[in-house]
Amino acid sequence: MIRPVLPLVMTTAFISNAYAIEPIPTESGFSGFVNVGVGGMSVESNTLAQFGSVDLSNSTINSIDGSASSEDSAIPIIAAEIAYTFANSRTQVFIGNQLEDYIRFDFSTLAGIRQEIGKAGVLGASFLYTPLATEVWSDPFLTGSPRTKTDRTANGYRLIWDRMYGTGLELRYSYRDVDIDDELSGVSQGLESEDVTLLNRNGDLHRFTAQYTFTWDSPRHRLVPLFSVIDLDADGDAMAYDGYSLGANYIYSVNRWRLVTNVYISELSFDEGHPLFDDRKIDSSQFGASFTAFYASPFGWKNWLANGSVAWFDQDSDVNFYDSSVGLFSVGLLYRF
């Protein structure tokens, strides 16, 4: 199972990590970016069904004892953010997408505010909502017949304190209300009602992240290590977990090139055993990496950046049914204004 908590470091955070963490502009007016591209993706998952018109797994499985088969697809890459700055008050309001969410198949849109508070840094608050829900399988464990899709949304909010007292420290907290429209996990397997309850995926997702930006030979090198604590208070105890993740973002800039590398590891520990797998917990380890290259002013186009990326993610669970992976490549054009 590809967890919706997969954080930004893993992959398409390359644009937000490379460009979004910037001071509030000194002049009033609009700013932002638009990125459009195409890509290819290979997904192995037993729980994700579809986003948009892209199928992520087979509707019919014959057993719950093995890992998922692979699904290959072409995908659009579309994201944008628009902001307006009030220079006198050092305030910025914004709305848009975060590319960091794409690999989670989570199309949340943020709308919020950033406020510079002198030497103390920049505070930010934003609402998170899902205009395009990811579809998951209502009962992932149904075998021998086509499974039914259902919407999964994860609305909530995000709080950020950046550049704390002139340092490179940033703290952020996010909350999401995970809601699956038609949650029927395990019903097809004839489980007792208390065991079906253990598999309920609805719940409250909390994430706290601390990261620090180091720069040297500015602006050539930038390194951002981060640490996150994760907690999903799911309605079903077998789906509830807590864990941590470690990651790093490294940016190398030279001439018209900006090269962005992300690496990520995570460990998740579940509260209770899974009733369909001999009461084993589905504890898992996650690994990911991505590389993106930006090239400024291609063909002499001012404010444009050509970009290409490759990304990989793998989840190794103690239960094979929940093993999953994603491979992704994309090319695109980004316009900044």
| CA radius of gyration | 21 Å
Share in helix: under 10%
Give me the count of strands. 18
| Number of alpha- plus pi-helical segments | 2
Q: Characterize the biggest β-sheet.
A: 14 strands, antiparallel, barrel
Q: Low-confidence spans: pLDDT under 50, at least 5 residues?
A: 1-16, 99-105
Distance between the termini: 38 Å
Rounded mean pLDDT is: 89
Query: Strand sequence of the main sheet, in spatial order?
Result: 1-4-5-6-7-9-10-11-13-14-15-16-17-18
Q: Write the element-wise H/E pattern from the N-terminal end onward.
A: HEEEEEEEEEEHEEEEEEEE
How would you characterize the overall build of this protein?
With 337 residues, this protein is mainly beta. It is 4% helix and 55% strand. The protein has helices spanning 14-20, 193-198; strands at residues 29-44, 48-51, 54-55, 70-86, 91-97, 109-116, 122-129, 134-137, 149-162, 169-180, 203-212, 214-216, 221-234, 241-254, 257-270, 284-296, 304-317, 324-336. It has a 14-stranded antiparallel barrel with strand order 1-4-5-6-7-9-10-11-13-14-15-16-17-18.
Please tag this protein with its features.
4% helix; 18 strands; single chain; 55% strand; 337 residues; disordered N terminus; mainly beta; 14-stranded antiparallel beta barrel; globular; 2 helices
Summarize the structure.
With 337 residues, this protein is mainly β.
SSE layout:
Elements: H1 14-20, E1 29-44, E2 48-51, E3 54-55, E4 70-86, E5 91-97, E6 109-116, E7 122-129, E8 134-137, E9 149-162, E10 169-180, H2 193-198, E11 203-212, E12 214-216, E13 221-234, E14 241-254, E15 257-270, E16 284-296, E17 304-317, E18 324-336
Antiparallel strand pairs: 1-4, 1-18, 2-3, 2-8, 4-5, 5-6, 6-7, 7-9, 8-9, 9-10, 10-11, 11-13, 12-13, 13-14, 14-15, 15-16, 16-17, 17-18
